[in-house]
Each structure stands twice: as C-alpha cells, then as structure tokens.
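S2.1 Query sequence (Recombinase family protein)
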Amino acid sequence: MESQQTLKYCLYARKSSESDERQAMSIDSQIKEMSALAVKEQLQIVDIKQESHSAKISGARPLFMEMLSDLNNEKYNAILTWAPDRLSRNAGDLGSLVDMIDQKKLLRIRTISQSFSDNPAEKFLLMILCSQAKLENDNRGLNVKRGIRSKCEMGWRPCPAPLGYINYSHAGTKKVMLDKEIAPKVKELFELVAEAGYSGRDLKRMIDREGIFKKHAGRQVPLSMIYRILKASFYYGRFEYPEGSGNWYTGAHEPLITKELFDKVQKKLRVPIKPKWGQKYFLFKDLFKCAYCGASIVAEEKFKIQDNGNKHRYVYYHCTKKLDSTCPEQYVTESIIRDELINYVVFAEKKHLDTINITPEIKKRMEGFKKVKNQVLSEQKIENVSKTLKYSDYFKYIIINGTKEEKEIVLSGLKTPLFIHNKSILSQPLN
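Output structure tokens follow.
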C-alpha cells in the first residue's frame, strides 16, 4: 500500500509551442515551482523529464511514453507535475495513467494544488480535469475552423497574398490589395497567353530576360510558378479553400483580370491528350467523386456476346474504394450517368444553382446551334420558332448526339467535382 511504500517521484514538465498554450507557464518555471514544492513537502524526486510537445494526440510524446515505461519498470511510482493538463489533453494518454493507478504502478500524482491517488473520487476528478482540457482543445479547433470559414465567407482567403497582391490589416482582419507595381505585369502574362499565343515557356524566357519579378521573388521565377499563376482563379475574384475541397467563395478583393480573360487562357493552356495505343477512353472520366467516401470514380468496360454472335460494349462507373475499402456505393452504367447528368443540368438551370459555368466558347457554340435549328424549323414551315435556347436543351442534345470534342466542351461548363450516390448525381458529398 502507498502508506507502507516510499513515494519516488518523476518531475514532468511540458509546454507546447502551439497557440493554445502560449499563456502556459514556461518549462523552467514549472520545474522551479515544483522543485520548491518538493523541498517544502520533502518529496523525493528521482528523475526529471521535460519536453516541448503538444498533448493533443495519444502516444505522440516520446518522454511521456518513456515515463510510462519507467513507471511500469518501477523506476519510480509517482508523478510530480504543475497541473493535470501537463500530463494529458487526450483520452488515450489519460486512460494509460488511470490504468497505471489501477495496477498500483502509479501511486500518486501531485500537482501544485491537488493530489490524486487510487481513490475513486480522486481518479474521477483527475479524469474530469483532463477531459476538460481535451474539451477546450476540441472547442478551440472548432472555433478556428469556424473563424476561417467566416473569413472566407466575407471574401478574404486565409493565405499569403499571391504575386500581384500585398497583405494588409484592417480592423483586425487580414486583407489583400493590388500591388500597383507588380499587378500590371501579372495581368500582362494572362494577356500575352490569351491574345499573343504565348506558352508558359515563352513567358519564362521573357521574365528571365527582363528580370521581371526577380526583386520580389528573390530568384528567377520557375516555370511551375508561372503555370500556377495562370491557373489561379483568385485573379478574377474567386477562390477555393481549402484547395481541392470543392468549397468556392467570391473574393472581396479587387479582381486583376476578367473571368472571360481567365477562361480564354485556360483554353489556350489546355493540351489535348491523345490516348496511347490500346488506352481506353471514357467520356465521364475525372468528372465525379464518391459522395459516400470522397474517393475517385473510375470506369471500366465489359463486353457481352449474345447467342447470335453480336458483341455489345457496356461501361460501368464505380468508386475506387481507396479511402474506404468498405464503401457501399454501387456500380452505375454510363447510360444512367448520362441521363442523371441531363436531369442534374435541367434542375441546376431551373433553380439557378451556381454549378454551371457557360463559358464564351459554349455560348458561341450555342448561338451557332440555335441558328441552324431555327433555320431547319423555318424551312419546314414550323411556326413559333423559339428565339432563345436553354442551356439544358443544348446540353442534352450534345451529350446524346454530339461529337467527342463537343461533349468535352459542354462538360467543361460543369463545376466539378460532382458526386455520385445511389446512381444519382449530387453537387456536394454526403458528409
């Protein structure tokens, strides 16, 4: 029993560099305070461990895990620390400490103002205090995410300003404004691609030759950075945060270019990919993700030979299950995908959803299609020829009857990724 056993203490001090613990007492101060308490109460300290590490994740602190091992090997049987949250801010490490107490390996935990031993009330209090520390961490994480989302909804991207903009603070909010010196040069890159047919390598040679941006970047601008600039929607006033999340926001900053100029540049940058010999082509490849687990949707073809010898090709789309091997999402045929996609576009157009982007190229093709359609109807003396053409009607006609190029262009007007669930198409994942 504890009363018959000498208590040998390990003094454990910890401080994280993360923002949630910037107000916590420093490691040196913790050791000083607890050493003074040990002298005052004649506590025997046989080891001192100190580390700068977050306690949010279980089993992630090397010296804490070493201390548990030493307790198990009976190097000492008590812990002296400044406060319970120095030991644990997660359920896993807290459970390890309580297990040590239950196994009589850990006889006492002594803090600056409290003591915990193998007593139901004291163990319960220890668990409450450490669980409260975990609750504070969890709430803080939610508040940070909520703050970031709120900032995005206000139109301010929580990232360093891209080339052509500079950061500044106003009323406690970090914002961006145009860099009057650099912005015109960045805009010129877009114009050279759209109007003069410059490639990324052409721009790099020009930038290196004239020393553009070198003073600001501190070095020559790599080709990859040039392409990142040309593909950044931030310059026309929209941004996605986090990247790849599908969460798009309208920026409150002053756009550097127009959406039309941006779309023109993207078309110039698009390089047609010729399939390799034997490589299969699937129309809806890279368009969808799984609504259930978020993994990519891939396609595969199957052939069926009938009794009369006719051979039929069927295309199926399905989740890769790379993110969740137990994902229950079912296979869906390309014909169902096509019909559901048409219904999705009709619905999105009717509800004025911000999921369709009718590019200048699509508008141009729609006008040509409308003229031909109205001319045919007029020649057949069909009255009430419509002077307008719905995008959904054009989309349906092209997806069913269009060429491969026409289909790819009309699909480029959809904001992706779209999501598949139970053979239906959604604009957002389930979670």
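The longest helix spans residues 120-153. The domain at 165-269 is CATH 3.90.1750.20 (Hect, E3 ligase catalytic domain fold).
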